[in-house]
Write a structure and sequence with these properties.
By secondary structure, the chain is mainly alpha-helical. Helix content is 62%, strand content 4%. The protein is elongated, with a radius of gyration of 31 Å. The structure holds arginine (ARG).
Length: 478
Protein backbone atom coordinates (compact mmCIF):
# COMPACT_ATOMS: atom_id res chain seq x y z
CA UNK A 1 0.00 0.00 0.00
CA UNK A 2 2.63 2.48 1.09
CA UNK A 3 6.25 1.79 0.16
CA UNK A 4 7.66 4.28 2.68
CA UNK A 5 9.85 2.96 5.47
CA UNK A 6 7.45 4.62 7.91
CA UNK A 7 4.33 3.61 5.95
CA UNK A 8 2.83 1.14 8.45
CA UNK A 9 0.24 3.37 10.12
CA UNK A 10 -0.81 5.10 6.89
CA UNK A 11 -3.66 4.03 4.67
CA UNK A 12 -3.44 6.76 2.04
CA UNK A 13 -0.57 7.64 -0.29
CA UNK A 14 1.30 10.90 0.34
CA UNK A 15 0.21 13.61 -2.08
CA UNK A 16 2.86 14.26 -4.74
CA UNK A 17 2.89 17.92 -3.90
CA UNK A 18 3.43 17.21 -0.19
CA UNK A 19 6.18 14.73 -1.03
CA UNK A 20 8.02 17.30 -3.11
CA UNK A 21 7.50 19.98 -0.48
CA UNK A 22 8.85 17.91 2.40
CA UNK A 23 11.71 16.20 0.56
CA UNK A 24 15.24 17.38 1.31
CA UNK A 25 17.18 14.98 -0.89
CA UNK A 26 18.31 17.70 -3.30
CA UNK A 27 20.17 19.35 -0.45
CA UNK A 28 21.13 16.57 1.97
CA UNK A 29 22.52 14.27 -0.75
CA UNK A 30 25.80 16.02 0.01
CA UNK A 31 25.86 14.20 3.34
CA UNK A 32 25.94 10.70 1.85
CA UNK A 33 29.54 9.86 2.73
CA UNK A 34 29.08 10.94 6.34
CA UNK A 35 25.73 9.15 6.53
CA UNK A 36 27.37 5.90 5.45
CA UNK A 37 30.32 6.43 7.75
CA UNK A 38 27.89 6.97 10.65
CA UNK A 39 25.91 3.85 9.71
CA UNK A 40 29.08 1.75 9.66
CA UNK A 41 29.94 2.92 13.18
CA UNK A 42 26.35 2.25 14.25
CA UNK A 43 26.56 -1.36 12.90
CA UNK A 44 29.72 -1.96 14.90
CA UNK A 45 28.11 -0.52 18.02
CA UNK A 46 25.02 -2.72 17.56
CA UNK A 47 27.26 -5.79 17.22
CA UNK A 48 29.31 -4.84 20.27
CA UNK A 49 26.04 -4.56 22.25
CA UNK A 50 24.95 -8.01 21.00
CA UNK A 51 21.91 -6.53 19.24
CA UNK A 52 23.12 -7.96 15.92
CA UNK A 53 25.77 -10.61 15.29
CA UNK A 54 29.30 -9.80 14.11
CA UNK A 55 28.47 -11.55 10.87
CA UNK A 56 25.37 -9.44 10.33
CA UNK A 57 27.42 -6.34 11.03
CA UNK A 58 29.99 -7.41 8.40
CA UNK A 59 27.28 -8.01 5.82
CA UNK A 60 25.74 -4.60 6.50
CA UNK A 61 29.10 -2.84 6.37
CA UNK A 62 30.02 -4.45 3.06
CA UNK A 63 26.64 -3.41 1.67
CA UNK A 64 27.17 0.16 2.88
CA UNK A 65 30.66 0.34 1.39
CA UNK A 66 29.22 -0.82 -1.96
CA UNK A 67 26.58 1.90 -1.83
CA UNK A 68 29.27 4.43 -1.03
CA UNK A 69 31.23 3.32 -4.08
CA UNK A 70 28.16 3.58 -6.32
CA UNK A 71 27.35 7.02 -5.01
CA UNK A 72 30.94 8.16 -5.56
CA UNK A 73 30.54 7.16 -9.21
CA UNK A 74 27.07 8.66 -9.57
CA UNK A 75 25.63 5.16 -10.09
CA UNK A 76 22.78 5.62 -7.64
CA UNK A 77 19.41 7.09 -8.55
CA UNK A 78 18.03 9.12 -5.67
CA UNK A 79 14.30 8.90 -5.12
CA UNK A 80 12.46 12.01 -3.99
CA UNK A 81 9.58 9.96 -2.58
CA UNK A 82 12.08 8.59 -0.05
CA UNK A 83 12.46 12.14 1.33
CA UNK A 84 16.06 12.36 2.31
CA UNK A 85 19.50 10.82 2.03
CA UNK A 86 19.05 8.66 5.14
CA UNK A 87 15.96 6.89 3.76
CA UNK A 88 17.44 6.58 0.29
CA UNK A 89 20.50 4.77 1.57
CA UNK A 90 18.57 2.55 3.97
CA UNK A 91 15.98 1.61 1.33
CA UNK A 92 18.76 0.73 -1.09
CA UNK A 93 20.51 -1.41 1.54
CA UNK A 94 17.27 -3.30 2.15
CA UNK A 95 16.84 -3.78 -1.58
CA UNK A 96 20.42 -5.12 -1.86
CA UNK A 97 20.61 -7.27 1.28
CA UNK A 98 17.02 -8.10 2.23
CA UNK A 99 16.01 -8.89 5.79
CA UNK A 100 19.29 -8.26 7.55
CA UNK A 101 19.27 -4.63 6.43
CA UNK A 102 15.99 -4.10 8.28
CA UNK A 103 18.08 -4.26 11.46
CA UNK A 104 20.32 -1.29 10.68
CA UNK A 105 18.03 1.37 12.11
CA UNK A 106 17.67 -0.40 15.51
CA UNK A 107 18.29 2.03 18.37
CA UNK A 108 18.60 4.97 16.02
CA UNK A 109 16.34 7.71 14.68
CA UNK A 110 16.77 10.05 11.78
CA UNK A 111 16.83 12.75 14.43
CA UNK A 112 20.17 11.67 15.86
CA UNK A 113 21.34 10.40 12.47
CA UNK A 114 20.91 13.71 10.64
CA UNK A 115 22.63 15.78 13.28
CA UNK A 116 25.51 13.30 13.38
CA UNK A 117 25.92 13.71 9.62
CA UNK A 118 25.82 17.49 9.78
CA UNK A 119 28.30 17.57 12.67
CA UNK A 120 30.70 15.40 10.68
CA UNK A 121 30.23 17.66 7.68
CA UNK A 122 30.86 20.88 9.63
CA UNK A 123 33.82 19.29 11.39
CA UNK A 124 35.42 18.41 8.08
CA UNK A 125 34.66 21.77 6.44
CA UNK A 126 36.03 23.57 9.49
CA UNK A 127 39.34 21.76 9.10
CA UNK A 128 39.41 22.82 5.44
CA UNK A 129 38.61 26.42 6.37
CA UNK A 130 41.39 26.33 8.98
CA UNK A 131 43.78 25.13 6.27
CA UNK A 132 42.66 28.00 4.00
CA UNK A 133 43.08 30.54 6.80
CA UNK A 134 46.57 29.22 7.53
CA UNK A 135 47.44 29.67 3.91
CA UNK A 136 46.01 33.20 3.83
CA UNK A 137 47.92 34.20 6.96
CA UNK A 138 51.13 32.74 5.53
CA UNK A 139 50.58 34.73 2.32
CA UNK A 140 50.10 37.95 4.31
CA UNK A 141 53.22 37.25 6.35
CA UNK A 142 55.27 36.58 3.19
CA UNK A 143 54.05 39.83 1.62
CA UNK A 144 54.82 41.76 4.79
CA UNK A 145 58.35 40.32 4.93
CA UNK A 146 58.96 41.14 1.30
CA UNK A 147 57.82 44.76 1.72
CA UNK A 148 59.57 45.93 4.87
CA UNK A 149 60.93 48.95 2.97
CA UNK A 150 57.61 50.20 1.69
CA UNK A 151 56.01 53.15 3.44
CA UNK A 152 52.48 54.40 2.84
CA UNK A 153 50.03 56.76 4.49
CA UNK A 154 47.94 55.25 7.25
CA UNK A 155 44.39 56.61 7.10
CA UNK A 156 41.64 57.58 9.47
CA UNK A 157 38.30 58.76 8.02
CA UNK A 158 39.96 57.83 4.70
CA UNK A 159 42.13 60.96 5.18
CA UNK A 160 45.91 60.64 5.24
CA UNK A 161 46.90 60.49 8.89
CA UNK A 162 50.41 59.20 9.64
CA UNK A 163 52.95 57.14 7.71
CA UNK A 164 53.12 53.41 8.39
CA UNK A 165 55.05 50.47 7.01
CA UNK A 166 53.13 48.47 4.41
CA UNK A 167 54.15 45.43 6.42
CA UNK A 168 52.37 46.88 9.45
CA UNK A 169 49.24 47.52 7.39
CA UNK A 170 49.24 43.98 5.98
CA UNK A 171 49.80 42.49 9.42
CA UNK A 172 46.63 44.22 10.66
CA UNK A 173 44.79 41.78 8.36
CA UNK A 174 46.94 38.96 9.68
CA UNK A 175 45.52 39.73 13.12
CA UNK A 176 41.94 39.64 11.83
CA UNK A 177 42.39 36.32 10.08
CA UNK A 178 44.18 34.94 13.11
CA UNK A 179 41.13 35.72 15.23
CA UNK A 180 38.99 34.01 12.58
CA UNK A 181 41.26 31.00 12.80
CA UNK A 182 40.82 30.92 16.57
CA UNK A 183 37.05 31.27 16.27
CA UNK A 184 36.77 28.33 13.87
CA UNK A 185 39.11 26.29 16.05
CA UNK A 186 36.97 26.99 19.14
CA UNK A 187 33.75 26.31 17.23
CA UNK A 188 35.19 22.98 16.16
CA UNK A 189 35.53 21.88 19.80
CA UNK A 190 31.77 22.37 20.24
CA UNK A 191 30.95 20.71 16.91
CA UNK A 192 33.04 17.68 17.75
CA UNK A 193 30.33 16.04 19.91
CA UNK A 194 28.77 12.70 19.02
CA UNK A 195 24.92 12.59 19.22
CA UNK A 196 24.17 8.95 18.20
CA UNK A 197 22.46 6.90 20.90
CA UNK A 198 20.04 9.74 21.63
CA UNK A 199 17.62 8.11 19.17
CA UNK A 200 14.39 10.08 18.60
CA UNK A 201 14.77 12.29 21.69
CA UNK A 202 14.84 10.28 24.91
CA UNK A 203 17.72 7.86 24.45
CA UNK A 204 17.50 4.17 23.52
CA UNK A 205 16.56 0.89 25.22
CA UNK A 206 19.57 -0.87 23.63
CA UNK A 207 22.86 -1.03 25.55
CA UNK A 208 24.81 0.99 22.99
CA UNK A 209 28.34 1.97 23.98
CA UNK A 210 28.22 5.57 22.83
CA UNK A 211 31.86 6.25 23.65
CA UNK A 212 32.80 3.37 21.37
CA UNK A 213 30.75 4.92 18.52
CA UNK A 214 32.46 8.25 19.19
CA UNK A 215 35.93 6.70 19.04
CA UNK A 216 35.08 4.93 15.76
CA UNK A 217 34.12 8.27 14.23
CA UNK A 218 37.01 10.21 15.76
CA UNK A 219 34.79 12.35 18.01
CA UNK A 220 36.32 13.71 21.19
CA UNK A 221 33.03 14.00 23.15
CA UNK A 222 29.64 12.33 23.51
CA UNK A 223 26.50 14.49 23.83
CA UNK A 224 25.29 14.33 27.42
CA UNK A 225 21.58 15.11 27.07
CA UNK A 226 19.59 13.24 24.42
CA UNK A 227 17.00 16.00 23.95
CA UNK A 228 19.64 18.66 23.48
CA UNK A 229 21.70 16.31 21.30
CA UNK A 230 19.03 15.96 18.63
CA UNK A 231 17.83 19.55 18.62
CA UNK A 232 21.03 21.53 19.14
CA UNK A 233 22.10 23.49 16.08
CA UNK A 234 24.37 25.95 17.90
CA UNK A 235 27.35 24.53 16.04
CA UNK A 236 25.74 25.62 12.76
CA UNK A 237 24.96 29.07 14.15
CA UNK A 238 28.54 29.33 15.28
CA UNK A 239 29.95 28.26 11.94
CA UNK A 240 27.69 30.77 10.17
CA UNK A 241 28.65 33.62 12.48
CA UNK A 242 32.34 32.79 12.27
CA UNK A 243 31.94 32.72 8.50
CA UNK A 244 30.13 36.08 8.56
CA UNK A 245 32.95 37.68 10.58
CA UNK A 246 35.59 36.20 8.26
CA UNK A 247 33.64 37.67 5.34
CA UNK A 248 33.68 41.07 7.06
CA UNK A 249 37.47 40.85 7.04
CA UNK A 250 37.69 39.62 3.46
CA UNK A 251 35.35 42.34 2.35
CA UNK A 252 37.27 45.08 4.17
CA UNK A 253 40.48 43.96 2.55
CA UNK A 254 38.73 43.67 -0.81
CA UNK A 255 37.48 47.22 -0.51
CA UNK A 256 41.00 48.39 0.22
CA UNK A 257 42.41 46.56 -2.81
CA UNK A 258 39.68 48.06 -4.99
CA UNK A 259 40.51 51.57 -3.78
CA UNK A 260 44.23 51.01 -4.12
CA UNK A 261 43.84 49.74 -7.68
CA UNK A 262 42.02 52.94 -8.73
CA UNK A 263 43.90 55.66 -10.64
CA UNK A 264 43.16 57.98 -7.72
CA UNK A 265 45.32 55.87 -5.40
CA UNK A 266 47.41 53.84 -7.84
CA UNK A 267 48.98 51.95 -4.89
CA UNK A 268 48.71 48.49 -6.44
CA UNK A 269 48.50 46.70 -9.74
CA UNK A 270 46.01 43.83 -9.81
CA UNK A 271 47.45 40.67 -11.37
CA UNK A 272 46.15 40.25 -14.94
CA UNK A 273 45.19 36.68 -14.16
CA UNK A 274 42.70 37.89 -11.54
CA UNK A 275 41.24 40.95 -13.25
CA UNK A 276 38.84 41.44 -16.13
CA UNK A 277 38.44 43.95 -18.92
CA UNK A 278 35.50 46.00 -20.05
CA UNK A 279 33.50 45.03 -23.13
CA UNK A 280 33.35 48.67 -24.22
CA UNK A 281 36.23 50.61 -22.62
CA UNK A 282 39.56 49.23 -23.87
CA UNK A 283 41.64 50.97 -21.20
CA UNK A 284 39.92 49.26 -18.28
CA UNK A 285 41.20 46.61 -15.94
CA UNK A 286 38.60 45.86 -13.31
CA UNK A 287 39.14 44.36 -9.85
CA UNK A 288 36.16 42.00 -10.21
CA UNK A 289 37.48 39.34 -7.85
CA UNK A 290 37.61 41.57 -4.75
CA UNK A 291 34.38 43.23 -5.84
CA UNK A 292 32.63 39.87 -5.92
CA UNK A 293 34.12 38.84 -2.59
CA UNK A 294 32.72 42.08 -1.17
CA UNK A 295 29.39 41.38 -2.87
CA UNK A 296 29.06 37.76 -1.75
CA UNK A 297 29.42 38.85 1.86
CA UNK A 298 25.71 39.68 1.81
CA UNK A 299 24.76 36.04 1.19
CA UNK A 300 26.75 34.90 4.21
CA UNK A 301 25.24 37.58 6.47
CA UNK A 302 21.74 36.72 5.24
CA UNK A 303 22.18 33.01 5.94
CA UNK A 304 23.23 33.72 9.52
CA UNK A 305 20.05 35.72 10.09
CA UNK A 306 17.97 33.00 8.38
CA UNK A 307 19.41 30.35 10.68
CA UNK A 308 18.96 32.43 13.84
CA UNK A 309 15.34 33.04 12.85
CA UNK A 310 14.81 29.37 12.07
CA UNK A 311 15.91 28.25 15.54
CA UNK A 312 14.31 31.04 17.50
CA UNK A 313 11.27 29.86 19.46
CA UNK A 314 11.49 26.14 18.56
CA UNK A 315 10.29 24.00 21.46
CA UNK A 316 12.22 20.87 22.35
CA UNK A 317 13.05 18.57 20.77
CA UNK A 318 13.23 17.88 17.00
CA UNK A 319 11.05 20.01 14.72
CA UNK A 320 10.95 19.65 10.97
CA UNK A 321 11.84 23.33 10.60
CA UNK A 322 15.39 22.19 11.31
CA UNK A 323 15.58 20.51 7.94
CA UNK A 324 16.10 24.01 6.50
CA UNK A 325 19.43 24.30 8.33
CA UNK A 326 21.42 22.51 5.65
CA UNK A 327 20.65 24.75 2.68
CA UNK A 328 21.90 27.89 4.40
CA UNK A 329 24.87 26.11 5.93
CA UNK A 330 26.06 24.58 2.66
CA UNK A 331 25.65 27.83 0.77
CA UNK A 332 27.65 29.85 3.29
CA UNK A 333 30.38 27.21 3.45
CA UNK A 334 30.63 27.21 -0.32
CA UNK A 335 30.75 30.98 -0.55
CA UNK A 336 33.38 31.31 2.18
CA UNK A 337 35.60 28.61 0.72
CA UNK A 338 35.24 29.95 -2.82
CA UNK A 339 36.17 33.45 -1.63
CA UNK A 340 39.21 32.22 0.29
CA UNK A 341 40.14 29.96 -2.61
CA UNK A 342 40.41 32.82 -5.10
CA UNK A 343 41.48 35.60 -2.74
CA UNK A 344 44.69 33.91 -1.59
CA UNK A 345 46.37 33.33 -4.98
CA UNK A 346 45.18 36.75 -6.16
CA UNK A 347 46.65 38.49 -3.12
CA UNK A 348 49.96 36.68 -3.57
CA UNK A 349 50.28 38.21 -7.05
CA UNK A 350 49.33 41.83 -6.31
CA UNK A 351 52.18 44.25 -7.04
CA UNK A 352 52.66 47.19 -4.72
CA UNK A 353 53.58 50.54 -6.23
CA UNK A 354 56.03 51.75 -3.61
CA UNK A 355 56.79 55.03 -5.42
CA UNK A 356 53.16 56.11 -5.46
CA UNK A 357 52.84 55.16 -1.81
CA UNK A 358 55.97 57.15 -0.92
CA UNK A 359 54.71 60.18 -2.86
CA UNK A 360 51.42 59.99 -0.96
CA UNK A 361 53.33 60.07 2.31
CA UNK A 362 55.19 63.25 1.28
CA UNK A 363 51.99 65.20 0.63
CA UNK A 364 49.13 65.99 2.95
CA UNK A 365 50.90 67.11 6.15
CA UNK A 366 51.28 63.63 7.61
CA UNK A 367 54.10 65.03 9.75
CA UNK A 368 51.99 67.70 11.48
CA UNK A 369 51.61 65.67 14.68
CA UNK A 370 55.35 65.06 14.72
CA UNK A 371 56.08 68.77 14.43
CA UNK A 372 53.78 69.39 17.42
CA UNK A 373 55.49 66.61 19.40
CA UNK A 374 58.84 68.18 18.47
CA UNK A 375 57.72 71.50 19.96
CA UNK A 376 56.48 69.73 23.09
CA UNK A 377 59.94 68.17 23.46
CA UNK A 378 61.37 71.72 23.29
CA UNK A 379 59.16 72.77 26.21
CA UNK A 380 56.17 74.24 24.35
CA UNK A 381 52.82 73.28 25.99
CA UNK A 382 50.89 70.83 23.74
CA UNK A 383 47.86 73.10 23.13
CA UNK A 384 50.14 75.95 21.99
CA UNK A 385 52.18 73.57 19.85
CA UNK A 386 48.96 72.29 18.23
CA UNK A 387 47.93 75.85 17.36
CA UNK A 388 51.37 76.87 15.97
CA UNK A 389 51.49 73.82 13.74
CA UNK A 390 47.89 74.46 12.61
CA UNK A 391 48.97 77.94 11.52
CA UNK A 392 52.03 76.53 9.75
CA UNK A 393 49.84 74.05 7.87
CA UNK A 394 47.45 76.82 6.83
CA UNK A 395 50.37 78.91 5.57
CA UNK A 396 52.05 76.03 3.71
CA UNK A 397 48.74 75.07 2.07
CA UNK A 398 48.30 78.63 0.81
CA UNK A 399 51.77 78.39 -0.78
CA UNK A 400 51.13 74.92 -2.21
CA UNK A 401 53.97 73.47 -0.16
CA UNK A 402 54.47 70.88 2.60
CA UNK A 403 55.89 71.53 6.09
CA UNK A 404 59.23 69.98 5.22
CA UNK A 405 59.42 72.34 2.23
CA UNK A 406 59.24 75.52 4.35
CA UNK A 407 62.51 77.30 5.09
CA UNK A 408 63.83 77.44 8.64
CA UNK A 409 63.07 81.17 8.75
CA UNK A 410 59.48 80.51 7.72
CA UNK A 411 59.14 77.79 10.36
CA UNK A 412 60.66 79.95 13.08
CA UNK A 413 57.93 82.49 12.31
CA UNK A 414 55.43 80.10 13.88
CA UNK A 415 57.58 79.19 16.87
CA UNK A 416 61.11 80.35 17.71
CA UNK A 417 61.63 76.92 19.36
CA UNK A 418 62.00 75.38 15.89
CA UNK A 419 65.59 74.63 14.85
CA UNK A 420 67.30 73.02 11.87
CA UNK A 421 67.16 69.56 13.52
CA UNK A 422 63.43 69.68 12.71
CA UNK A 423 63.91 68.43 9.13
CA UNK A 424 65.22 65.08 10.31
CA UNK A 425 62.15 64.68 12.54
CA UNK A 426 59.78 65.36 9.65
CA UNK A 427 61.07 62.48 7.46
CA UNK A 428 58.67 59.50 7.08
CA UNK A 429 61.27 56.96 8.15
CA UNK A 430 61.97 58.90 11.37
CA UNK A 431 58.27 59.32 12.05
CA UNK A 432 57.72 55.60 11.64
CA UNK A 433 60.59 54.58 13.86
CA UNK A 434 59.51 56.88 16.67
CA UNK A 435 56.21 54.93 16.90
CA UNK A 436 57.90 52.18 18.84
CA UNK A 437 55.31 51.36 21.47
CA UNK A 438 54.51 47.63 21.56
CA UNK A 439 52.38 46.94 18.49
CA UNK A 440 53.42 50.18 16.77
CA UNK A 441 54.70 50.69 13.23
CA UNK A 442 58.41 51.23 14.08
CA UNK A 443 60.56 48.92 11.97
CA UNK A 444 61.89 47.18 15.08
CA UNK A 445 58.35 46.52 16.39
CA UNK A 446 57.10 45.25 13.05
CA UNK A 447 60.12 42.97 12.66
CA UNK A 448 59.40 41.44 16.03
CA UNK A 449 55.67 41.09 15.18
CA UNK A 450 56.66 39.20 12.04
CA UNK A 451 58.81 36.84 14.06
CA UNK A 452 56.00 36.22 16.56
CA UNK A 453 53.63 35.58 13.66
CA UNK A 454 56.05 33.11 12.09
CA UNK A 455 56.24 31.07 15.29
CA UNK A 456 52.48 31.24 15.76
CA UNK A 457 51.92 29.93 12.22
CA UNK A 458 54.23 27.01 12.89
CA UNK A 459 52.23 26.10 15.97
CA UNK A 460 48.87 26.53 14.21
CA UNK A 461 50.02 24.46 11.30
CA UNK A 462 50.95 21.55 13.60
CA UNK A 463 47.51 21.84 15.24
CA UNK A 464 45.75 21.72 11.87
CA UNK A 465 47.82 18.70 10.79
CA UNK A 466 46.72 16.83 13.91
CA UNK A 467 43.07 17.75 13.31
CA UNK A 468 43.30 16.67 9.69
CA UNK A 469 44.72 13.29 10.70
CA UNK A 470 41.85 12.67 13.10
CA UNK A 471 38.96 14.23 11.23
CA UNK A 472 39.63 13.82 7.53
CA UNK A 473 40.19 10.07 7.96
CA UNK A 474 37.20 7.94 6.89
CA UNK A 475 35.57 5.08 8.80
CA UNK A 476 35.72 2.76 5.79
CA UNK A 477 39.43 3.45 5.58
CA UNK A 478 40.10 2.84 9.27
N1 LIG B 1 15.49 15.24 6.57
C1 LIG B 1 15.33 15.45 7.97
C2 LIG B 1 16.12 16.70 8.40
O1 LIG B 1 16.95 17.11 7.68
C3 LIG B 1 15.83 14.28 8.73
C4 LIG B 1 15.21 14.10 10.08
C5 LIG B 1 13.78 13.81 9.92
N2 LIG B 1 13.17 13.42 11.14
C6 LIG B 1 11.86 13.30 11.27
N3 LIG B 1 11.43 12.95 12.42
N4 LIG B 1 11.07 13.51 10.28
O2 LIG B 1 15.89 17.28 9.45
Amino acid sequence: MNKKLWGGRFSERTARIAETFTASIDVDRRLYAHDIEGSIAHCKTLAKAGVITEQEADTLIQGLVRIKRDMDHGAFDLDESLEDIHMNIEARLIQDLGKVAQKLHTGRSRNDQVVLDVRMFVRRETVLVLEDLLHLRQTLLDLAKAHMDVVLPGYTHLQRAQPVLLAHHLMAYWEMFTRDFERFQEGLARTDVMPLGSAALAGTVYPLDRHYTASLLGFSKVASNSMDAISDRDFILEFLSDAAIAMVHLSRMSEELILWASSEFDFIEMPDAFATGSSIMPQKKNPDVPELVRGKTGIVFGNLVAMLTLMKGLPLAYNRDMQEDKGVLFQSMDVLRACLGVFIPMLAKVTFNSDAMARAVEAGFLNATDLADYLVAKGVPFRDAHRYVGEAVKYARSKGRELQELSLAELKGFSPAIDKDVYEILKPEAMINRRNSFGGTARRCVASALETARKRLEKDSRAVDALARRILKKAWAR
